[in-house]
Structures are given as C-alpha cells and as structure tokens.
Write a structure and sequence with these properties.
single chain; 422 residues; alpha/beta; UDP-n-acetylglucosamine1-carboxyvinyl-transferase, Chain; 2 domains; four-stranded mixed beta sheet; 27% strand
Length: 422
C-alpha cells in the first residue's frame, strides 16, 4: 500500500489509541492469572492480536463482550498447541518465551517478518540456567523449548532490551518464586520495567527491586478470581500525534495518563524544549505550532521516540541532538540508518556520530517518495513530516502502521490532513 500525505493544517480533538505495551503485558497477566480477567479499552494492532492468539494457544479462553471489552478465562499455562507465533512483536517473543516455558510440554516459538532476523541468543544462555531445554536457529527464531521453568538466582544482561527481563519477571511471579533474585547488569528502558511491575502488582504479584540491579519475589500466588484492567492510551503512537500538532496544529489529544510509567511519555519534555505551544491538563493535551528551536534529548530509555522526534527536529531551527543511537540497531529496521536515508530524501541532513544523532532542521522539508522499510514508526514519521512539506510525500509499504497503530492515517485525516491510500 502507498499512502500519500499532503501539506495540511490540522485542528480538532483525537483520542489516543490503546497502548500495545500495556495491552500485551495485560494479556500475559490474564493468561497467568487463574480466573477471569476483563481488559477494558483493548488494543487491536497486529501486535495486540498476536498476543491474543498466543494466550489462546497457551490455554486461555478469549472473547469480546457487547461493550468491546476483552474477556480472558484461564487456569494458567496449559498449551493447546505445540507452536505459537508472535507475529512481528519483539515484546511478544521476548515476554512469552519464559512464560511458555512454565509448561513441561515442548513448544516452538516463531515469528514473522523482521522478527526472524532479530537476535534471540539471550535465551540460549539463560533458559538452561532455569531448567529449560532450548534450541534456537543459531541465536534466531524459531526457538524450541521444553520446561518447566524452575526459578533460580540468575544474572541477566539488560543492555539489549528490557523485554527479556519482563518475560522472566512474569514467569518467576507465576511460578511462585520465593527467596530468589534476578540480578541485572546495564538495564536499558527502565520505564518499561516499571510498567511490567505495575501490571504485575495490579494482578497480585509483588516484586521488589534494588535500584533495578536486582529483583526479588514474595512467593505469593494471587487469588483473584475476577480482575479488570484498563489498557492505557499509547504514548508511543500519541507521540506522532503530538508532534503533528506541534508542526501543523493546533490539536487536542485525549486519553493519555500523565502519571503513566510508559517510557515514551518523555516526549512531553522534548516538545516543551523545542518551544511549541503546549497546555498539559489531566484529561487532555492541547498543542500547536510556534517558532520551533533545536533541542537536546536523551532517548536511551525511550528509543521508540527517535522517529517522531526526527520529524519534529526537521522543523526546528538549528541542529537537534538525540542520544541513544545504539538502541536502534535491532528494531523493525536499523532505525538510525533508515531515518538517515528517508529524511535525506526529504532534504533533511541526519548525521550519526557515535551514540548521537544530529538533525539539521529548519531548512525546509521537500516533497519526495519514501519507503517505510516495513517499519511502522518510519511510516508514521514520514507522514507527520509531510504536514508542512513543500508538496506531497508518499510512503511505500505504508501498511506497516498496522503493527502498532492501524487507525493512524484515519486519525490524521480526522484532524484535517490530506491523506489517501492506494
């Protein structure tokens, strides 16, 4: 699919989509909780649908009620299939692998698209330490595992992704780990671990940590026959809406939790620093354009903000610096190189310097044909950059947005953007 976005003036109000980080963790918790779980405001992105499919195959009964809530009935991990597929979800494969290993049945975990090339050798080293047999495809998918996982004191490397730790934390909690500790070195994306711990606490698991260097478990197994969980609005997707408002608004974005542990809430600081017009209230964020200036931002804990912030920086006078380039290699694309290539087509110079990305903005965004590289966030970044370009910007493989935000083009159009797909 090709999306074509015209320079546009935006106005109006939009509600943020459900957050897949929150949704997928809640699906996992619903599977691990014996009883009934109701997920309010469930997501419908490809990653969300993949998570629903995985918990079904791992033993949960899933259906929607008349109000659109997701009802999960589970007795724990009791696989109905010997293979599960996490689609293209990096969180899905990294979280559900230790969870699936709670069963003593042999299970193959697989994925599709770019997930097949992403490193999974973390599991080759860790799973045998907790009693799980594992056979990977030279450190990549598919993974063949056989548990049951037996919690033990282990040390894990948190530098590649916090998502591996998320899976282990949830599996240890569900296994009733007690007087055991997961030690972690060089943990990245701490706010995502905060989100994991928040979801676990909501479902009854108590985990304590020592400044993110070690995590300990109470050994309690929650007895919650009926649980409801409201899936938060997605700060990752909303970051693109907020940047769009700063470039071509004014608009109002609703449905975001200002106390959220989601790492991408940090986009607010970048927006404040660039000098846009922004009013942050409990129930909504009103944002519009002002003369924008270059900013400095550390994205080590929120690397998914690189694409929207590059689009923002393109319209900021001066050179913007974003730290954390090393976190971009193992995404749906190598986002550092992809952003450099695609924004280069738009006339924006992006320079990579060790762990820094330098974006020279204020030079004007040119009409061009771009490509998503099958990466949802690249597709959305190019669409947002088009809003004040000197002509139409097209995005090939624009359907990549379905991974996280299938309504994105519709939401832009609702706000007044000239968007058509073909």
């Amino acid at each position: 699919m090709i999306a074509r976005v015209q320079p546009s003036q935006l106005q109006g109000t939009i509600t943020a989509a459900a957050g897949k980080s929150s949704m997928q963790r809640a699906c996992a918790a619903g599977l691990l909780t014996k009883g009934n779980t109701t997920l309010l405001n469930p997501g419908k992105s490809n990653d969300d649908l993949a998570a629903i499919d995985v918990i079904r195959k791992l033993g949960a009964s899933v259906q929607y009620d008349a109000e659109g809530n997701l009802l999960i009935r589970s007795e724990g991990v009791r696989p109905l299939d010997n293979e599960v597929n996490c689609g293209e979800s990096g969180l899905g494969i990294r979280m559900f692998t230790p969870i699936a290993a709670l069963s003593d049945q042999p299970i193959t975990l697989n994925g599709s698209g770019s997930l097949l090339t992403r490193p999974m050798d973390f599991f080759d080293g860790i799973l045998p330490q907790v009693g799980v047999k594992v056979n990977s495809n030279n450190g990549k998918l598919p993974l063949q595992i056989q548990g049951p996982l037996q919690p033990a004191d282990i040390t894990v490397d948190g530098s590649l992704s916090s998502q591996f730790l998320t899976g282990l934390l949830m599996a240890y909690g569900a296994a009733g780990a007690k007087n055991m500790t997961i030690h972690v070195t060089d943990l990245k994306s701490k706010p995502y671990i905060d989100l994991t711990l928040q979801v676990m606490k909501h479902f009854g698991w108590e985990v304590t940590h020592d400044n993110y260097r070690s995590f300990s478990f109470s050994g309690t197994t929650p007895a919650l026959p009926d649980t409801s969980y409201a899936v938060e609005g997605d700060w990752s997707g909303a970051a693109f809406l907020l940047v769009a408002g700063a470039i071509a608004g004014p608009i109002t974005v609703k449905g975001l939790n200002l106390q959220s542990t989601q790492a991408d809430r940090a986009v607010l600081q970048a927006l404040i620093d660039c000098g846009c017009s922004i009013s942050i209230q409990d129930e909504q964020i009103h944002i519009g354009p002002m003369p924008l200036k270059a900013f400095h931002f550390n994205a080590n804990d929120c690397p998914d903000l690189f694409p929207p912030l590059v689009a923002l920086a393109a319209y900021c006078e001066g050179t913007t610096t974003i730290e954390g380039v090393n976190r971009l290699t193992h995404k749906e694309s190598n986002r550092a190189l992809t952003l450099q290539e695609e924004f280069g087509k738009l006339g924006i110079a992006v320079t990579l310097q060790d762990d820094l990305m330098l974006i020279k903005g204020g030079t004007g965004v040119k009409a061009a044909a771009t490509h998503s590289h099958h990466d949802h966030r690249i597709a959305m970044a190019c669409a947002v950059a088009a809003l004040r370009a000197d002509g139409e910007i097209s995005i090939d493989q624009a359907e990549a947005i379905n991974k996280s935000y299938p309504d994105f083009y519709d939401h832009l159009a609702h706000l007044g953007a000239g968007v058509r797909t073909e």
